[in-house]
Design brief:
heterodimer; A: alpha+beta; 6-stranded mixed barrel; 66% helix; 10% strand; elongated; B: alpha/beta; Rossmann fold; 6-stranded mixed sheet; 4-stranded antiparallel sheet; 10 strands
Chain lengths: 680, 255
């Protein structure tokens, strides 16, 4: 009997249950996918250094996962509360008809259990399939080998999800039972007619809470800006931010009450007073859900903008680090004098050079001992950095090093090849080149005033440090000297470098394939010594970018993906809330019409109300996100220069499209709900 | 002088071909300025439908309704809201106060919709509230008010915009007898002191006895008309009961 009643109830208020069910299933699905990410990454072949990054990422995920669990828990409790409120009258009726409280509780528990079970099943099914799709898309993104594709199922994620939602459902059951057993009958029966929450809880308290919330948020902001996002304090900072957010919406509901006294002219114009009161009532009853949605939006914006900005930063870094389509290097030593240029040998061996390569340039790399004298700090820093790489400090401001020497004209040819401006070098001048990752430490130091002595000749600095790489992915030491041609070319050649540019990525791949086809293993065995091919090392841009960007792209991808899911969830929840609100308030709008408000004014009132309700959490989320992104930028400052703006712009676009789309859809649907029913 | 309300041969059908219900069947009457007219009839007699047509909430099937000389049946949707705003005030059985707004704001809403300048609003709201004895209720929310107070706030809202015609649909329907009496006294004061024109639909003889003239409706047709003249309320009440018992059916309920 009870079970039948529970089922029939569910069928009767199917629309309300649908909201609840969808919220639950969405939450379960999201949670599973989120937690199965570490199982997915097994699909992508990773090398040791990449694994390190992924481990770091997963440890960060654990934090985020806890946060997500709390957020989802609150969301479910909220959705349940929303449902309970709409059904209080029905429950009251059971009690009035003589059903025992225990019986009513059992109905509720049965309902919660059934819905929970179905939602869990539906959500997990959705989650398992969604995570496959995510895996496939990720693999595509890296052009990973899909032959190793297998169906990923993460029992750990399943257990985590089931446990987490089990706890949430238990809380919901306790909550519902408490509602039934502790509520007075009259409250249940009049619930529908009750104004949701009396908006007066002492006027003095609101400003106090407002200040408290500002204090909480300011502390959290400043703290996270100081420590960055990788500190141990991140948890405390998040909690502080959450508390601040809830307090903010709590105090906001009180501040809206003061508005009529502050701006009577605005307040008592047209339907303004109605709209503001509606919004106030919304905020008042939905403090918790607004806070949760605000935090979800915050996470969304950070994930999207942060992910995109980091990816942009990485690819920008990659482009700068690997300026040439391919670099080939041939190391010479005493016996191996270069007879031909690398390019010439390649042509002679039958490589279709002209078809594949757009432009190329060769440089002879010399090596000599150099003595740096001058500004103390420069040598100090350099010596510290390269202590174990053969540099020796002689006294306080003298550094001796075996150094790569580049002839100026050939170096400039390389710069032209990479579309970089040429450098100018006088007869007795040198330019100092330093590997770009070290540049931040050295760039600030004065290079003028430092003299270099090579083979008894002394040069002075012609300008600031050069940092642009002159190879794609080849290690030629941390520092190099660019010296005048006449002098440099007299020095012994240590290696030859050929840089080539391609028209397209396909040409680059074809070039690498052509080389592999000509210079085969057999050729290596039959040829004498190392002279079987005109280069020792080949390094292509494709290869370098692929390996360096892959892990970082995982971060980007996850960021965008998590962001989008959160965005859609919060937008959907907000939209559904507004719709049910409109349905509840249809009578109010009918009344406005009867009082003679114009149809246009009524519609505008509805739109304004929805827009305000939807934008309130968004605006606080934007402030949160601005701080969060700045903290992110600062955290990566040393490793990666991130420009947040393009990512933020793209995020704004996504927000406008998705969030705005939901807003519009909600507005039109709500308008349909409150539309006057024409009779006769 | 031109009547405030003139109803001419109004008909209202419901249903499709074959099963047509005539809710209002060829009714004509006029209401002069300053009159307090009651419309009585049993449930289903068509009195609320008639009121809805006059209120422009419903459209007539045939006939014309003139308010202040204007044919409201010929007005388009856009003109109608302006008409409602300028000419009509409503009091409903279930009060229809907005529960997110305080009593003050509920009354003020009728004024802000009429684009009354914000600086005038406070004075005018307090004035009508005082007239209806609900000054102390102004800062409260509807759920904090008793039924009687709510209905008087609704009445205040109805008269706040100085409408030419106040339409009341079973205003005492949800009130106990004491609250009903207080409300009806207020309406009579509005009528006699301020000269407000009121058209009230009711099935309750006691409520009707506060009116100056009563139209009885049976099965969608005008059954009879009763004028109070110089009679006292008690005497008028007895005469109403007589007609009601003639109408049949609803008399026992009214008593």
């Amino acid at each position: 009997m009870l079970c039948k009643l529970a089922l029939r109830n569910a069928a009767r208020s199917v629309r309300d249950f649908a909201v609840y069910f969808l919220t639950l299933a969405f939450g379960v699905c999201l949670f599973y996918v989120f937690n199965s990410i570490d199982a997915q990454q097994a699909m992508i072949a990773l090398n040791e250094s990449q694994k390190y990054y992924v481990e770091q990422m997963i440890s960060m995920m654990t934090y985020v996962s806890v946060f997500v669990a709390i957020v989802l828990g609150l969301l479910v409790v909220y959705a349940n509360r929303f449902l309970m409120k709409r059904r209080k009258q029905e429950l009251g009726l059971y009690l009035l008809l003589g059903m025992e409280r225990g019986g009513v509780s059992r109905i509720l528990i049965a309902e919660t259990f059934l819905i929970g079970l179905f939602a869990l099943a539906a959500g997990l099914t959705g989650g398992v399939f969604l995570s496959q799709m995510v895996s496939v898309v990720t693999a595509r993104l890296f052009e990973a080998d899909l032959t190793s594709f297998h169906f990923v199922f993460s029992p750990a994620a399943l257990a985590k999800t089931a446990l987490c939602f089990g706890v949430i459902f238990a809380v919901v059951m306790v909550f519902n039972t408490a509602t039934v057993t502790r509520c007075r009958l009259t409250e249940l029966l009049t619930a529908a007619r009750r104004n949701e929450t009396p908006a007066r809880r002492g006027r003095l308290r609101y400003p106090v809470f407002f200040l408290l919330s500002v204090a909480c948020l300011a502390t959290a902001y400043l703290w996270v800006l100081q420590t960055g996002i990788f500190s141990r304090d991140l948890g405390s900072q998040i909690i502080l931010g959450c508390v601040g957010t809830v307090l903010f919406f709590f105090s906001l509901s009180g501040l809206l009450n003061v508005l009529p006294r502050l701006f009577p002219r605005f307040y008592f114009r047209g339907l303004n007073c109605f709209v503001l009161r509606q919004v106030n009532s919304r905020v008042n009853t939905a403090i918790l859900s607004m806070s949760v949605i605000c935090l979800m939006l915050f996470l969304t914006i950070c994930s999207l903008a942060g992910g995109m900005s980091m990816a942009e930063g990485f690819s920008e870094q990659a482009r700068q680090q690997y300026p040439y389509g391919a670099s080939l290097m041939y190391t010479t030593d005493g016996e191996r004098k270069p007879a031909l240029s690398i390019e010439g040998t390649l042509r002679a061996d039958g490589i279709a050079f002209d078809e594949l390569v757009r432009s190329s340039s060769q440089m002879e790399i010399h090596r000599a001992d150099a003595r740096f004298e001058g500004a103390f700090r420069f040598f100090d820093a350099a010596a510290l950095l390269y202590e174990d790489s053969g540099y020796t400090a002689e006294g306080e401001d003298v550094l001796a090093a075996s150094c790569v020497i580049l002839p100026a004209s050939q170096y400039n040819a390389m710069r032209r090849l990479a579309n970089q401006p040429e450098v100018e070098l006088g007869e007795d001048e040198y330019l100092f080149w330093v590997k770009s990752t070290m540049a931040q430490d050295l760039a600030a130091l004065p290079s003028s005033g430092v003299t270099v002595t090579v083979e008894g000749r002394t040069f002075t600095a012609a300008g600031a440090c050069l940092t642009e790489p002159f190879t794609t992915g080849l290690g030629l030491g941390h520092i190099a000297l660019v010296l005048p041609d006449a002098f440099a070319q007299a020095l012994p050649v240590s290696s030859q470098l050929l840089n080539v540019q391609f028209d397209s990525r396909a040409d680059g791949d074809a070039f690498a394939a052509a080389l592999a086809a000509v210079y085969t293993e057999e050729r290596a065995e039959t040829a004498s010594g190392r002279n079987w091919r005109p280069y020792d090392i080949l390094s292509t841009q494709t290869q370098m970018i692929d390996s360096s960007v892959s892990v970082k792209t995982v971060i980007l991808f996850l960021g965008v993906y998590i962001g989008l899911v959160f965005l859609i969830t919060s937008a959907a929840v907000l939209g559904l809330q507004q719709l049910s609100e409109a349905a509840d308030r249809a009578e109010s709008y009918r009344l406005l019409r009867r009082l003679g408000a114009k149809e246009k004014a009524v519609r505008r009132a509805l739109f304004t109300q929805i827009t305000l309700c939807v934008c309130l959490p968004l605006s606080l989320a934007l402030v949160h996100a601005a701080v969060g992104l700045e903290a992110l930028r600062r955290s990566f400052l040393d490793e990666l220069p991130i420009d947040i703006l393009p990512g933020a712009a793209a995020t704004a676009l996504v927000l406008v499209l998705i969030y705005g789309g939901y807003l519009l859809a909600t507005c039109f649907a709500a308008q349909g709900i409150i539309r006057p029913r024409r009779r006769g | 002088m031109e009547p405030v309300l003139s109803v001419r041969n109004v008909e209202k059908y419901y249903g499709s071909r074959g099963t047509v219900t005539k809710a209002v069947d060829d009714i004509s009457f006029t209401v002069e300025k300053g009159e307090f007219v009651g419309v009585m009839g049993a449930s289903g007699s068509g009195k609320t439908t008639l009121l809805n047509c006059i209120a422009t909430i419903d459209r007539v099937s045939a006939g014309h309704i003139f308010v202040g000389g204007r044919d409201v049946t010929a007005l388009g949707e856009r003109r109608l809201s302006a008409f409602r705003r300028e000419e009509l005030g409503f009091i409903f059985q279930d009060f229809n106060l907005l529960d997110t707004l305080t009593a003050f704001e509920n009354i003020a809403l009728a004024l802000t919709i009429r684009r009354v300048p914000p600086q005038e609003i406070r004075v005018r709201v307090e004035e009508v509230a005082q007239r209806l004895g609900v000054s102390s209720a102004l800062p409260k929310y509807p759920y904090q008010l008793s039924g009687g107070e709510k209905q008087r706030v609704a009445a205040a809202r109805a008269i706040a915009g100085n409408p030419s015609l106040i339409l009341a649909d079973e205003p005492t329907g949800s009130l106990d007898s004491r609250s009903a009496r207080v409300l009806l006294e207020s309406l009579r004061t509005l009528n006699t002191v301020l000269g407000a024109t009121i058209l009230m639909v009711t099935h309750d003889a006691f409520t009707a006895s506060y009116c100056g003239r009563i139209l009885f409706i049976k099965d969608g047709r005008l059954f009879s008309e009763l004028r109070r003249g110089e009679a006292g309320r008690k005497e008028f009440f007895d005469r109403i009961i007589e007609v009601v018992s003639l109408l049949g059916g609803d008399g026992a309920h009214a008593l």
